[in-house]
Amino acid sequence: MDKLSLNKHISSSFNEEIAEIRSHVMAMGGLLEQQLNNALKAIINADAQLAKAVIDTDLKVNDWQLQIDKECTSIIVKRQPAASDLRLVLAIMKAITDLERIGDETRRIARAALESFNSEQQELLLNLDNLGRHVGQMLHDVLDAFARMDVETALLVHKEDKKIDREYEVITRQLMTYMAEEPHSIPKVMNVLWSARSIERIGDRCKNLAEYIIFFVKGKVVRHSSAEQLEQEIRI
């Protein structure tokens, strides 16, 4: 096999391996979408059985993270990718860390769902449901952007995080006021507060995923950039 043929073979093998890794990332992401949806259903509907299923399934999320990390390490050692190929592998390795942490947050929401809430406390969960749906859409959109390496969609997801932060602040104030007026409710309502915090953190993770897409496509590290700075960066 001459050098040109060898290089083509190596390139073809790398493309096949990276395509498989990307398919595994999407499978992990799809599982997490389902996990988040089920965790929210469990806490809103007081479904302890569904909550336990979410907690148990988190092990599969961890397994995916370990498997994909191993695959990425292997491809770096075997193929020694450079430039954009290396950026893609690094972006994937960063992404699966954030995806695994999204799994941790969904597990925390599911654990809170094992608590029982009275009818008045149930009303507090409505805003939690709205926040969860908003973040669920963020997760769906950023996974779609990751599949296509779509910078424009990634930028939109990045911008959504500020809206999530504002919604979270409103819910926090509402819950703090309720606990001040109903001190006996503090232990249970704190579970709602921690769940809201977990949802907000999932939004942060989605924002990180959007930044990894931009890192791969544009070759620029954009962490800690404002939405305005980020938009300027990707237009250059």
- At CATH level 3, the topology is Methane Monooxygenase Hydroxylase, Chain G, domain 1
CATH architecture designation: Up-down Bundle
Distance between the termini: 42 Å
What's the order of the H and E elements?
HHHHHHH
Query: Into which percentage range does the β-strand content fall?
Result: under 5%
- CATH level-4 homologous superfamily: Phosphate transport system protein phou homolog 2, domain 2
Low-confidence stretches: 1-9
Shape: globular
Class computed from helices, strands and strand pairing: mainly alpha
Outline the fold blueprint.
Layout: H1 3-45, H2 48-79, H3 83-112, H4 119-148, H5 151-181, H6 186-218, H7 227-235
Helix pairs in contact: 1-2, 1-3, 1-4, 2-3, 3-6, 4-5, 4-6, 5-6, 5-7
Task: Explain this structure.
The chain is globular and about 65 Å long. It contains seven helices and no strands. The chain has helices spanning 3-45, 48-79, 83-112, 119-148, 151-181, 186-218, 227-235. The chain has a single domain, classed as Phosphate transport system protein phou homolog 2, domain 2 (Methane Monooxygenase Hydroxylase, Chain G, domain 1), CATH 1.20.58. The chain has 236 residues and is mainly alpha-helical.
In short:
The protein is mainly α and 236 residues long. The chain has helices spanning 3-45, 48-79, 83-112, 119-148, 151-181, 186-218, 227-235.
Which key phrases capture this entry?
single chain, 236 residues, mainly alpha, Methane Monooxygenase Hydroxylase, Chain G, domain 1, 0% strand
